[in-house]
TrEMBL record:
The keyword Transferase does not apply. PANTHER family: COMPETENCE PROTEIN COMM, MAGNESIUM-CHELATASE SUBUNIT CHLI. GO terms for molecular function: ATP binding; DNA binding. Keywords: ATP-binding, Nucleotide-binding. Residues 259-286 are annotated as: Disordered. Signal peptide: none annotated. InterPro entries: AAA+_ATPase, CHLI-like, MCM_dom, Mg_chelat-rel, Mg_chelat-rel_C, Mg_chelatse_chII-like_cat_dom, P-loop_NTPase, Ribosomal_Su5_D2-typ_SF. Residues 288-387 form the MCM C-terminal AAA(+) ATPase domain. This is Magnesium chelatase family protein. It comes from Azomonas macrocytogenes.
Length: 496
């Protein structure tokens, strides 16, 4: 047979579109043509494949070889197609049966010796192969990652000779059995380590219960970073779909997802991070910190020290839960449903309002410092809290009921009520959900409207205030939002 088809997968963002490798042999002068928008690494694959085939003792056809990577308008990159190209040539030349390739997809880079090297982005390809009803053949180093797609038949090999023996029926490969190496989670830091700060812990509970964004402001050393790092341990465990989304993102980003899977991510970029580092980008769009924090927490310490233009790019993903990176040739969509926790000082020196009078900042310096944060960005943060300095108590023991396990159980109950009622956390309610699930009494409605007018709150801020109130009601297992919930939610809005 002079024509063979092999199935593989490309990588576009967190998606893995199907690619069919077509190998055709024809009479004529020996040559090899590779078509289908291959980039440099893919063009070089013909040399790697030729050497691997010859090294393994197979015949490289001395004919006119045409390799087509379909669809032709989809850019192909990386060495992930090496194995599929090699199998296509071997099948087209009759050295392995072509019909055995129909229900299988292949990924893998070839060494000149024929050894299989791991590639990036295997998990999205595994999920796509499962949806297509095919098995997946990958290098052994990628097999544990591919096996996270439950229900998928995964085959693993170390060498092209093993793959050829499998398709020839000489030594069939056995389906890979997951070892569970990627499910070794680490314990989260415990909230019991934080001394005092009852108001901040209360705000942390509310943020976890409703997936609300949180801004902590206070002098240095009051525990803002310590509090933020405890938030992931208060959140409910990821379900299977959420965990696979997180692992897929880290798979394509080469972040080694899979150590401590399936834990919620906690990302803490430095304040010198650029816009592309935060939201993603590049000539070949890659995920940024907000995507790597998907289904987890993005902590921005020293918030005013970030470049203002960098912070402004957060406004859209905070609303939509995704980021779209557009280039002249590509338009890639990355998920970015993260929970923002930010920390800042009240002034450049950090001691504004300190009883000891240590602050020497002028009003102009304070205004310039705070002006680095725009109103629209602050509007999108549900909870604003001032963290005061606590009295020094070295070696103090935590009070009862303040550990992460107890708080997380309270959060889980509130989240369960939200899932049963509306199918999402309160922070993600849309306008129709607000009208349906955040109904106020005839007396509370005008009271809240007057309070919003006095504080100068925007309509967006008023909606977020309602969502926080709904979370406070859920924490108390109250069926309706009451005046006390609205009053407490108002305390978390900035007054400037």
């Amino acid at each position: 047979m002079s024509l063979a088809l092999v199935h593989s997968r490309a990588q576009v963002g967190v998606e893995a579109p199907a690619v069919t490798v077509e190998a055709h042999l024809a009479n004529g002068l020996p040559s090899l043509a590779l078509v289908g928008l291959p980039e440099t690494a893919v063009k070089e694959s013909k040399d790697r494949v030729r050497s691997a085939i010859l090294t393994c003792g197979f015949d490289f056809p001395a004919r006119r070889i045409t390799l087509s990577l379909a669809p032709a308008d989809l850019p192909k990159e990386g060495g992930r197609f090496d194995l599929a190209i090699a199998l296509g040539i071997l099948a087209a030349s009759g050295q392995i049966p072509a019909q055995t390739l129909e229900r299988l997809e292949c990924l893998g880079e070839l060494a000149l010796s024929g050894a299989l090297r791991p590639v990036q982005g295997v998990l999205p390809a595994a999920l796509a192969a499962r949806a297509a009803g095919r098995s997946l053949l990958v290098p052994r180093a990628n097999a544990e990652e591919a096996s996270l797609a439950s229900g998928l038949e995964v085959f693993a090999a170390d060498h092209l000779l093993e793959v050829a023996a499998h398709f020839s029926g000489q030594t069939p490969l056995l389906p890979y059995q997951a070892q569970g190496l990627l499910r070794q989670t680490l314990p989260y830091p415990d909230l019991a380590d934080v001394q005092g700060q009852a108001a901040a812990k209360r705000a942390l509970l509310i943020a976890a219960a409703g997936a609300h964004n949180l801004l902590l402001s206070g002098p240095p050393g009051t525990g803002k970073t310590l509090l933020a790092s405890r938030l992931p341990g208060l959140l409910p465990p990821l379900d299977e779909q959420e965990a696979l989304e997180v692992a897929s993102i880290h798979s394509i980003a080469s972040q080694g997802p899979l150590h401590h899977w399936p834990q919620r991510p906690f990302r803490q970029p430095h304040h010198s991070a650029s816009g592309p580092a935060l939201v993603g980008g590049g000539s070949k769009p890659r995920p940024g910190e907000i995507t790597l924090a998907h289904q987890g927490v993005l902590f921005l310490d020293e918030l005013p020290e970030f470049d203002r233009k960098v912070l402004e790019v957060l406004r859209e993903p905070l609303e939509s839960g995704e980021i779209v990176i557009a280039r002249a040739r590509d338009r890639v969509r990355f998920p970015a449903r993260f929970q923002l926790v930010a920390a800042m000082n009240p002034c450049p020196c950090g001691y504004l309002g300190d009883p000891a009078g240590r602050c020497r900042c002028t009003p102009e310096q304070i205004q310039r410092y705070r002006a680095k944060l725009s109103g629209p960005l602050l509007d999108r943060i549900d909870l604003h809290l001032t963290v005061a300095r606590e009295a020094t108590a070295l070696g103090a023991t935590p009070t009862a009921g303040e550990n992460s396990a107890r708080v997380a159980a309270h959060v889980a109950q509130a989240r369960q009520r939200q899932q049963q009622r509306q199918g999402c956390a309160n922070a993600f309610l849309d306008l129709s959900g607000l009208r349906q699930h955040c109904v106020l009494s005839a007396t509370d409605q005008p009271w809240l409207e007057q309070a919003c007018e006095r504080l100068g709150l925007s309509l967006r801020a008023a909606h977020r205030l309602l969502k926080v109130s709904r979370t406070l009601a859920d924490l108390e297992q109250a069926a309706n939002i009451e005046r006390r919930h609205l009053a407490e939610a108002l305390q978390y809005r900035p007054t400037r």
